[in-house]
Structures are given as C-alpha cells and as structure tokens.
Amino acid sequence: MQYPASKRRFRALKLKETSQGILIPPPDPLAAETHPNGVAKLNGGFADSAFSDNKQRPIHRWVPWIAGFSAEFVRDSFARCLPANPASSAVVLDPFCGVGTTLIEAMRCGHDAIGFEVNPYPALAARAKCEAAALSPSQVNTFIRKFEEHMLRPAGDAGSVAPPEHFRSRIPFFGPHAQAKVLKALGFIRRLPVPPIQDLFSIAFGSVMVNLSNYSYEPSLGTRPAAGKPTQDDAPVAESIVTKLLAIKSDAAWFREELGRFARRPQGRVIPDNFLNALAHLRPASVDLLVTSPPYLNNYHYVRNTRPQLFWLGFVSEPGELKRLENQNFGKYWQTVRDLEMVPLDFDHPGLEKLLAEIRRVGVERGSYGGRGWANYAASYFNDTNRFCRVASQLLKPQARAIVVVGNSILQGVEIPIDNILADLASRHGLTVESIHIVRQKRVGASIVASSVRQGARTTARLYESAVVLRRA
C-alpha cells in the first residue's frame, strides 16, 4: 500500500510504561527515523484534524458544529488504510458520526458508510447529508418557492404551530416578532410531504435558529447579553432560512455529481443509537475501516447545547427526555454522575486507578463539586471507552484498522493521557496498537483547565489531540 507524502510531520510515541503504568504504543512502522528519546519523524503524517476547515466546504458547512474533525483528515485516513482503487466499495464506520463528516467523505470516495449518533439533531444533519444526492435541484427549488409564498401570507392564514410547551430559557429565546415568524416557518416545515425535503428544511432552520434568537454559542450556548450582545426583538427568519436552503441546494447538486462518478452509488446510513449497542445492528467482522472521534473528557455538553434544536424541531417535548439522552451519551456528563457513590472501574488498571485517586484527593471539602465528582465522571468515561474497544474489535474485519482521534484532558489539575489509556485498553481486546500521532499540539479548551469548578492545582500540561491507529489481528 502506498502512503501519500504529507504536508506536515508529526511525532509517534514508543511503547513504554509510564510512572502510572500506562502503556504508550510504538512508533509508526513507516517512520523515516527514530531517535533515542522515542520521538519518530514520520514519512506520512495525518492532515490537521481541526473541524474549522469544514466550515467552508460543500455539504460539511451546513451545520455549525464545535466537535469532529476535518474532511481532509478523513480522506487522509482513507488513503492510508484503504486500497486506492478498490475492486468493490469498502464499509466505513463512524461510531460517533456527529453531523456526518466521515460518512460524506466515505461516500465521495466510493465507499458505503455507517454512522451511529444518539443525539437526534446531529443525526438528522448526517442523514440529510447522506440523502442529499438523491434529490434533484428542481425539486428543492419547488419547495423553496412554496416556502417563500407561505411566509408572505397574512398572519391569519399562516399555518403556524405552537411553541414547545416545556422549553424554558433564562430570557425569552426568540424576540416576539421573530418568534411569530419562526412558528410560521415551522408550520410549513412540519407539513412537508417528502421526508428528505423535510430533513433539508429542518436542518436549514436548525442551523440558523440560534443566530435569530437571543442566545449565541461562545462556544457553549448562552444568552446574547452575557456575551456582550444586545437582544433581538425581530430577525430575518424567512431570509435566513432561504439563504441557507439555496446553499444546501447548490451543495446537494455538487454531491450528486460527485457520486455520479461511480457505477454504483455509495450508500450512507445513520443509526440513531448508542454505538455500544452496535452488535444489535451490524454483523461481527463486517467493517473495513473505523474512523471516529468519541466525545472528549472535557464535559462539553452536547445535549444542553443542542437543546433549542431538540425542542423546537420536535425531537423532545419535556425535560425528562433530555435526561434520557444525557444518560445514553458516551462517557456520560459530570452533571449526571457527580452525586453518585464512588463509580468503580469495570476493569483492572492500576495506572488509571492512581490518576483517579489523585483527582479524588483534590477539593474534598467541595463534595461532589470537588475531585470526587470529577473522578466519577472520568471513571464513567473510561468504562465506556473499554466497552467501545470491545465492540469495535468485534466489528472490524481481520487486519482492518481503526483510527480514533482523542484529546487529553486536565481534571482538577491532573492530566489524563486519553490516547495512552485508549491504546492500552484496545490492546486488551485483540487490537494491535500501530501508532499514536500527535495531530494537534495545541488545542482550545480553557474551560476544562481554568474553570473554578474544574480547577485543582495549577498545571503546566497542555491540551493536545492524537490519532490512535489500531489494527485487528
């Protein structure tokens, strides 16, 4: 297999035991040179994983998303691990597909793609993207025109819907004039007779709704006044949705042409379930390549930050349904496990136990808001990580690879080397650890380091991001 020359070079780490007893994998076998200190210069490093590059790319730009990785990184992964000219399409799996970056790039390369996503809003985005190539531009145009006509009708003939009854916000989410327009738009969207068209319109609304509201992402969801911005009594609802739809229509036509190059159109499938239940949906040894980035151990609350879309698009109707989604999330959230009795690890790992004990000793006087609560969160996260490794190993074909992008974390001033621990757990489930590549040496994450709730002793550790390359025997 030929590996492409890289524009950038990253370091791979040797398999050795740290002071915590955590194993670090060996350098990439394709390393050009390996230095005595264990740092290897690679002939072929991964492309930058930062998701920000996607914001200007067709299809990927549909939904603002803080997590995930770049389309370039995904295609680089395919070039490394799949044949350049496959006799038949491969099956690419993303266990945490988010808004569908891996799925779209797999389809563009002629491969079938499967994604798991427990949160209904990003699952909708991923599904709408996979469906886009099957829609004709004229069909999308017809419904955009009907939408514009609908929004111009008098208020008494608007076909509006009621706001979500149990949705609550600190200040009115929409200004009064903006909300009237929003309800009018949603009345049209909910009556659309073609499900893929309804998906496109729902995504167009969901992607612009926060900009039309009295809230904003900074990057977590908060009020505009808290971010130093004025509230909005009114907003250009119809214009914003139509502008987004026109961009979506253009991208869908481009995607249609991209897939038209193949004799058989690649298929994309989104499964709205927790990946840990994957064996109820997929056959063992059925996946050629797994590319994913699980939720990081940084407590970024995907459910809370998509709460407006979940309520206003009708995915949830009451707070109890949000709680169910929180409990299904990979690794849980600090808020959901902090008050539990001590959460034990489901597996034996002395090195990780030492780190958890160190976290528990911080801020004892703060109870669950101190180290005890954060240790519960970390233990829950790694219990799910261990299950992830077990399920992934069962789904991969023999010799198939998994590329897992993770970031280290700092809890209560204690650095947690997620990549090293993931590699160690994977090796216990029949996966060979080929290498770890540092793909970003500096990562934004001040909230997990500097927050008065999260912070323990000062640390000089820096946040970074790694690609862990695994292979099934």
CA(first)-CA(last) distance? 18 Å
Which class best fits the helix and strand makeup? Answer: alpha/beta
CATH names the topology of the domain at 11-110 and 267-299 and 328-472 as Rossmann fold
Give a count of the beta strands, DSSP E runs of length 2 or more. Answer: 16
**Do you know the CATH architecture of the domain at 11-110 and 267-299 and 328-472?**
3-Layer(aba) Sandwich
Q: Report strand order across the widest sheet.
A: 10-7-6-11-12-16-15
Output the radius of gyration: 23 Å
Major β-sheet annotation: 7 strands, mixed
Q: What percent of residues are in strands?
A: 15-25%
Low-confidence stretches: 1-44, 446-454
What is the helix tally?
A: 15
Kindly report the oligomeric state of this protein: single chain
> Mean of the pLDDT scores?
86
State the shape. Answer: globular
> For this structure, what is the CATH homologous superfamily of the domain at 11-110 and 267-299 and 328-472?
Vaccinia Virus protein VP39
Query: Can you identify the CATH class of the domain at 11-110 and 267-299 and 328-472?
Result: Alpha Beta
List keywords for this structure.
single chain; 473 residues; alpha/beta; Rossmann fold; 7-stranded mixed beta sheet; 3-stranded antiparallel beta sheet; 16 strands; 37% helix; disordered N terminus
Write structural notes for this entry.
The protein has 473 residues and is α/β, with parallel strands linked by helices. The protein has a domain of 278 residues: Vaccinia Virus protein VP39 (Rossmann fold, 3-Layer(aba) Sandwich). 37% of the residues lie in helices and 16% in strands. Strand 6, helix 2 and strand 7 form a beta-alpha-beta unit. It is globular and about 70 Å long. The two termini are 18 Å apart. The N terminus is likely disordered.
